[in-house]
Amino acid sequence: MTCRILTLQHPQEWPKMSQWLQGRRNPGNEAEAAVQEILAAVRERGDAALVDYTRKFDCPDFALPLRVTEQEIARAAATVRIEDREIISAAAANIRAFHEAQVEKSWFLTRKDGSILGQQVLPVDAAGLYVPGGQGGNTPLISSLLMSAIPAQVAGTPRLAVCTPPRKDGSVNPHILAAAHLLDIDEVYRVGGAWSIAALAYGTESLAPVDVIAGPGNIFVTTAKRLVQGQVGIDMIAGPSEVLVVADSSANPAWLAADMLSQAEHDALASAICITDDPRLAEALNMELQKQCAALPRAAIAARSLADWGAIVLTPDLNAAVAVANQVAPEHLELCVRDPWAVLPFIRHAGAVFMGQHSPEAVGDYFAGPNHVLPTLGTARFSSALSVQTFCKKTSVVAASSSFLQQNRAAIAALARLEGLEAHARSVEVRGKK
User: Is 205 assigned a catalytic role?
Assistant: First the structure.
């Protein structure tokens, strides 16, 4: 396994030096044509198309119904070890507490003339939550369900529809159903892939359409979400996952290697980068990466990820390291430095920041509370984590008084006529006539 080591003299060198990373943005366009075909099939054939695609990709003998019954959910949840249910419950409590702090309230302003202006914050009526199957349903992505369902519940969304691929025998992993049961979610469908995104967007005989779709997925799921955006809202267009670690001489190279590998094992397009001002740390980290990677069950995936998209970057000082981090705008940013709180004010762009030696990314992925659905590929420059706001919409409220209208009628009409909209002007002026 090799991980490139780069030496940067000045942050301005980074854009040219990092050209090799651009390949992560273009994994290929072959997915779009296939997804367009899937969307059209589901729109035209409904449940029949869902059955066909599920038989082809997930469960050869799949048959309707799509929906898992409440009794099946309860029975499956009962088969999960009590210890596991307690862990899921503790994680859910942490996630709920964090997202409850995000709730925005409606507000109103009263003007002296008696006009009332405001903003009404309301949840969407229905949300579709996609939960990846994970290696044929054998590695259930419980955290993905918690991270999308809980913000929607906190927002007040009355209907949550969960879609997840079935296993080869047609069942849903009981740990996923246990999490749904814990969250009092009773609408779970045994369907995944891009075809489930189409069903959530357009609706079928078995699955009513939703207003917002959230949750991570592979390139086909992500492409489907991008193509149905506008028909429905989505959380974000997420690319391959990534971590960037800023480290100084106080950092433990074994810990840093473990953190980088925790990202690299996701898939071959994942990126793990460490930026440091300490050459000795860089050398020790490179050795640790080689040693620890060889011992991983997913060593081949992690090794390819590090070779293609990983790097150890040497900078002249910590200020330069932070400047490069801001240019990358990573999904996950770890500050493994002596005083991370002194560095935090200078971080401009990151999906989530992990502070200090005892805050590895995995703490946030599973248990701390903040959402792990985060912007990738530099989009943290302008977008944010999945949140309660993903499942809310804001409506402006205008209650103009007679006094306000009379005082401002001429100005409003003048602006309308400047734009060539005579009927707009007259709709204001008519209210001044007796």
Answer: no
